[in-house]
Design goal:
41% helix; globular; binds adenosine-5'-diphosphate
Length: 138
């Protein structure tokens, strides 16, 4: 069964959107396997966003993602990676469709509420970074 990594960013946590966001994934039929409310270290954030390290916005993005608590989750189900990307919507909330999480709750690309892995390979990598002990579905 496919697993993906989803993370509510500090803006989503501070706006108290955890419940509404979890409900959307549950309503869609994915299964919550693991969740953790925690603060990312700078090292962890840099590893998580390694592919973007040469982008001009990288330092600001690391500062933002480590500025408060995040809510990290593993969701499981058939096509979980693609389904999660569809639920969160386009990276830039200006273009994100209404009905998607970013389309409904976010206004700017810097504060776009939520992350979801963009491939099966990145899901495995991001899950291992956050949940190194792993977790078997119950
Ligand atoms: P996604 O989060 O949709 O997978 P990316 O992996 O391309 O998108 O980017 C990671 C995060 O970096 C985005 O969610 C967004 O918060 C931030 N970001 C992306 N592009 C920009 C940009 N041009 N300016 C500022 N922040 C950006």
């Amino acid at each position: 069964m496919e697993q993906t990594f989803v993370m509510i960013k500090p803006d989503g946590v501070s706006r108290k959107l955890i419940g509404k966001i979890v409900e959307r994934f549950e309503d869609k039929g994915l299964a919550l396997i693991e969740a953790n409310l925690c603060r990312m270290s700078e090292t962890h954030a840099e590893q998580h966003y390694e592919a973007l390290k040469d982008k001009p916005f990288f330092p600001d993005m690391i500062a933002f993602i480590t500025s408060g608590s995040v809510f990290a989750m593993i969701w499981e189900g058939e096509n979980a990676v693609r389904i999660a990307r569809t639920l969160i919507g386009s990276t830039n909330p200006v273009e994100a469709a209404p009905g998607t999480i970013r389309g409904d709750y976010a206004k700017t690309i810097e504060s776009n509420i939520i992350h979801a892995s963009d491939s099966i390979e990145n899901a495995a990598r991001e899950i291992a970074l956050f949940f190194p002990a792993g977790k078997i579905a119950v």
